[in-house]
Amino acid sequence: MSDMQTNAAASPAGAVIVADSLTKRYGKAVAVDNISFALRKGEVFGLLGPNGAGKTTTILMLLGLTDISAGKVSVLGFDPARAPLKVKQRVGYLPDSVGFYDYLTAVENLAYTAKLMGLSLAERTQRIGDALLRVRLADVAHKRVATYSRGMRQRLGLAEILVKQAEIAILDEPTSGLDPQATLEFLQLIAELKAAGTTVMLSSHLLDQVQRVCDRVALFQAGRIVMMGTVAELAVQVLGAGFVVEVEAEGIGIARRLSTISGVTSVETVAADRFRMTAERDVRADAASAVVAVNGALRKLSVDEPSLEAIYARTFQPKSPGGVRDAA
Amino acid sequence: MLAPSSRNLRGASAMRREGSPFQGLGTVFVKELSDNISSVRMLVLELLILLTALAALYGAIDSLRQTTAEDPFLLLRLFTLAHEPLPSFVAILGFLIPLMAIGLGFDSVNSEHSRRTLSRILAQPIYRDALLMGKFLAGLTTLAVNLAALWLMVIGLGLIFLGVPPGGDEIARSLVFLVIAIFYAGVWLAMAMLLSILFRSPATAALVALGVWLFLTVLWPMLAPAFAQVIAPPDMRYTALGLDSPDTALWTQFLLRISPNELFGEAMQAILSPQTRTLGAVFLEQLRGAVMGAPLPLSESVMIAWPQTVGLIAGTIVLFVAGYVVFQRQEVRA
Predict the structure, then answer these.
(1) pLDDT block averages, 10 residues each, chain B of length 334
(2) Cβ contact A66–B331 (<8 Å)
(3) Of B60, B62, B65, which Cα lies nearest the Cα of B77?
(4) What is the pTM of this model?
(5) B17 CA: distance to closest CA in chain A (Å)
(6) Peptide bond into B85 cis (omega under 30)
(7) Chain A to chain B Cβ contacts (< 8 Å)
(8) A15-26 vs A243-250, strand pairing mode
(9) ipTM score here?
């Protein structure tokens, strides 16, 4: 699903967020330990990791909402510690389980933050109307937020980012606690943000969502980024291969033939007529021609895309043995 | 984030932050003010003060009409006259203004935490300074509006029931009363806000604030003399004559003045009772040439109340700054 951009290192020239050996200490405890990353304009970047791994702290440092102990950050060319107002003028933030003033309506809530953004009355009215329409809350715009469901609140939070017309949207656990339908709707909205050219940074511990919307992900563990790249790249790193292709075909010497395809790391014979190959790329076309080449009868050809779930499980296994070569 | 004061002191330092700390102050102020004024809590407190104040005024008017002497300060008597069993209007205000200020301030910051709105608001292009300052000024304005309304009510009732137009001096004195009352409210508002920053739970903050209020208004006046006797034991020569020892009396007064309640009461006495020549111990030279019971001019009364007034203003500022420093260093996340 994610479009596979393979150039791993972002060039700092086109980057909108650059963090360089960023560190946050609380007393002796290190919450964020010497992390570096760069976000390209227009990409969706996922921060992934268990609770307490330092994702939210990283986000707060990017917004200048907490002090930086060491290292450097630049957001849209500004230092959030020194020019937080300029950063916050152009970056939208949806906090983890966002809250609103319950006794005010959605429009009143947005009007307050829009005023803080310094928008004029005409501009406010226009942008709030548009934003509520886009997050599909226009028909409840004048209801008090107390009556809103969790999913509606999250969408209202996103509306605030739309009102700001933020160049970067930072979403902290945007879909945790939402039901599947609401999650789906919210992911759709994130995709729309991306389509509109907004750079999105989102943190999550819900893997399939991250995989669904993110171009690149960074895996956090105990304050460090242990791995960063596209899902496919991580799969190659962690699982040894990204793709698992299943072939169901009858014929002689199919297994041997399949293993000669370039990019295939192993072929496993599951049954007499079923083979499971692990590969660094989608090798279905090659597999089909290989079967045909040995005059085999091809009955089924399927591919499992690399799953973050597996990568995550492998990475955060307690004290996993060093070898990660065995596939699937 | 660096406080603006230290920013100015160390202008050239590397951590200098850009942009005005007052950006968004007006927006926060207007929003908080409208919240304060429309809240049910405020309405209840207003009704409470209004009813007790009306009762006190009724008592004062009643006794004034019976004694209608040629008192040149009839209007001021409305403020200070106590008619058993009710205390005077000023005494009631001294007791209830703190309650009102605590009611406004005890959850001003921690409710933003518990509602999870704080990080969302601070992600807007404003500094924390603007949020805290806006909340404080909105609270103080709410209290000022209420006190001004009460002040107008006293003047109006005085005109209707006593039928004597107040003189310029009386109006000026009652205006000074209004200003001092606002700063008295400011002390308690700043304290309630400090507690709302220190304690994450509004209930804890409210209980601690009410505890401090009860301690300073009810218990401290009883405890201060006891402490004074421990610090400066009474002199036998004075007790034999049935007099207070000067040292003990001075210590008592010193300790009492820790309470803003006492400062407010003394300032009110000086301003609203023009014949007050001194607060506390009287020295002989202060009485030289004095005509006992003759009223002082306003400027002299203000001079007498000045230390108390400055004490209230300083208390407001110190408590606000304490809250400000804690708030700047606090983590945003819940």
Answers:
(1) 42 64 92 94 91 88 73 82 84 91 94 92 94 96 94 88 83 93 96 96 95 94 90 81 80 90 92 80 65 79 91 96 94 75
(2) yes
(3) B60
(4) 0.85
(5) 4
(6) yes
(7) 87
(8) unpaired
(9) 0.84
